[in-house]
Design goal:
The chain contains 5 helices and 2 strands. With about 110 residues, the chain is mainly alpha-helical. α2 crosses α5. The radius of gyration is 16 Å and the shape is globular.
Length: about 110
């Protein structure tokens, strides 16, 4: 029994954090793509939309749009094409590269406050 317990890895308590360059690129991409038109984005002064939820502390949220586990691949897919990831989502598909979507997801997951 002790041998079986020793073989188990402890579950991670927080998602792995992205590197600083990806986080910076993600913040810049979110501003460039106008995500603030619908969301209040921390560190981006204008615009501060109210149609979508504010994204402060997004990295502490367990679910994306209240339905998907908040992990990097699913968040990147949602950021790029929300209607495909969560049918019925009010968030539109946003034309962007896969790298931009992954960088934005990295930035969102870095938001802890």
């Amino acid at each position: 029994m002790l041998l079986l317990l020793a073989a188990c890895d402890p579950a991670p308590l927080a998602p792995p954090r992205a590197d600083a360059a990806a986080i910076a690129r993600g913040k810049a991409a979110a501003a460039r793509h106008g995500c603030g038109a619908c969301h209040d984005l921390p560190g981006i002064g204008w615009p501060k939309g109210t149609m979508g939820p504010p994204l402060h502390g997004f990295g502490r949220r367990g679910l994306i749009a209240g339905r998907l586990p908040n992990d990097l691949p699913r968040l990147a897919a949602f950021v790029r094409d929300a209607p495909s990831a969560v049918p019925g989502s009010a968030m539109p598909a946003v034309p962007m590269t896969r790298r931009e979507a992954r960088d934005i997801a990295s930035w969102l997951q870095s938001l802890r406050d």
